[in-house]
Write the structure tokens for this entry.
Amino acid sequence: MKELIRAITSRLPVHGLPILFDLISPIFSRRPMPACLSLGDIKLELDLSNRVMRTMYFGIFEKDLLAYMHTVLRPGDTFVDVGANIGYVSAFARQRVGPSGRVYCFEPVPEYAEILKASLQSALVTNVIVVQQAAGDRQGSLPIKVSGRGNIGWNTIVPGLMEESADVRTVEQEFKR
């Protein structure tokens, strides 16, 4: 069933998908539901009980961005992904730039960087470089608020942007130029 839903949702235009997606999401959010998504050589292990991972699996995550990347990235290009998370956008970029291109992934949250590194090692991909570091306009250190598994993409250095909750923690991260 999840493959059928993915086949449908990944081909629909962006407008209206969040509404449709919210209607079908209770099917998947009851318990952890693993799913594997292949983006070229790279396989991402996703948990469909996680809202962000569901949007990745069903082809809804950053659909406009991926469409733009599809038009501008060519084999041999270099792509930089700042805030790479578990590597969904990086894996898509790797498909576009091919083995002759390069993808640089900056991800300061240790567990996300490790998940991305493991996916790349499993695929024997060598032209995607993970830098477990934040990127900034100056050197220094800042706390990064990291949300829990409920929303793996909601992390920020902006004070007051994310409310404190039981599922939010802070990671101190070095920034280098």
Remarks:
- The mean pLDDT is 83.
- The chain is about 30% helix and 25% strand.
- Residues 62 and 68 are 10 Å apart (CA to CA).
